[in-house]
Specification:
By secondary structure, the chain is α/β, with parallel strands linked by helices. Helices cover 42% and strands 12% of the residues. It has a single domain, classed as NAD(P)-binding Rossmann-like Domain (Rossmann fold), CATH 3.40.50. α1 packs across α6 and α4 packs parallel to α5.
């Protein structure tokens, strides 16, 4: 039986929806898609910030409020895009948060928030956009993961877990979509110069720009490769990691600075606290639990954001900061 090839998508006039689109990679991707003639809708947690970002980004971009951790909010977002702009041709799961610190110092609330935003968000997004894409016989989903979805980083244990999850999720759903004309690309960037890396010792990693990652996202609509590493040399990491002895890999990883997140003196705590404060309250479920008086077993420490200090849209949110990468 022949397998249906991916249906080409002409970005001129295509409808593109991007989560976590009010800043960083998401906003740059919105600009780049719009420059090719696409009709772009960005979604993010803070309505005013999202609408302002869309207005400032230029023509062809619209901003809508979106809480990726809350199904009702996600459903409204997708419905409004389809009703007011058109059926979604390209969907970018970009929203994400990245607290940093030792695993045992991380409170349950911030762990739960990462799981909700970084994993539950892409799950909900695909469940809501894929049926229409399958029905129309075309569509492309880009799940923005990370090199942390292939390579572990001490000091980012739960973040690592969420990105490994997105890589595996994408692989499984990709195979389920075979023959439908709909495709999934997982984009895995190295550390990027956005607020996610504020205050962290990244000087040895060679920070990428949002423009570089956006280029990989946009170009995937044409080539439809299953996975794209940014930079490309990281494609060889899995093979090298499987071949070389653990002691050699550990030495190489130390040389690259992979263990520096465990060295508190290397972290700019003022900058990191600013980021942690911004992402507090990014999970509606975590904040709903806090509002109902449910205890979080363990508190965030080392300046990490406490999920119970923020809020959630429609589920009792009081502060709403964008969660784009």
């Amino acid at each position: 039986m022949s397998v249906k090839a991916a249906t080409p998508i002409d970005l001129n006039g295509a409808v593109v929806a991007i989560t976590g689109g009010a800043r960083g990679i998401g906003l740059q991707s919105a600009r780049d898609f719009a420059a090719l003639g696409a009709k772009v809708v960005i979604g993010d947690l803070n309505r005013e910030a999202t609408e302002r970002a869309a207005d400032e980004a230029g023509e062809g971009i619209r901003g809508l409020q979106l809480d990726v951790t809350h199904r009702d909010s996600f459903e409204r977002f997708v419905h409004m895009v389809e009703r007011e702009v058109g059926p979604i041709d390209v969907f970018v799961n970009n929203a994400g948060i990245m607290p940093a610190g030792r695993f045992l110092d991380e409170g349950d609330a911030i762990s739960d928030a990462q799981i909700d935003v970084n994993v539950r968000g892409p799950i909900l997004g695909m469940k809501l956009v894929l049926p229409q894409m399958i029905a129309q016989g075309r569509g492309h989903v880009i799940n923005v993961a990370s090199m942390a979805g292939k390579a572990h980083v001490p000091g980012l244990a739960v973040y690592n877990a969420t990105k490994f999850a997105v890589v595996g999720l994408s692989e499984s759903v990709r195979d389920e979509l075979e023959g439908t004309g709909v495709t999934i690309t997982t984009v895995m960037p190295n550390a990027v110069k956005t607020e996610l890396t504020m205050g962290l010792p990244t000087e040895r990693l060679g920070l990428l720009t949002p423009e570089k990652v956006s280029k990989a996202i946009v170009s995937s609509v044409e080539h439809r490769r299953p996975e794209v590493a940014v930079p490309r040399w990281f494609n060889s990491y899995t093979l090298v990691n499987a071949i070389l002895p653990r002691s050699v890999m550990r030495f190489m990883r130390r040389r690259l600075g992979a263990y520096r997140l465990l060295e508190e003196e290397r972290i700019d705590r003022a900058e990191r606290d600013q980021y942690d404060a911004r992402i507090a309250g990014s999970s509606s479920r975590v904040n709903a639990n806090a509002s109902n008086g449910q205890a979080s077993n363990g508190q965030a420490s080392n300046g990490q954001a406490r999920g119970e200090e923020g809020s959630a849209t429609e589920a009792g949110q009081t502060t709403k900061e964008p969660v784009g990468k």
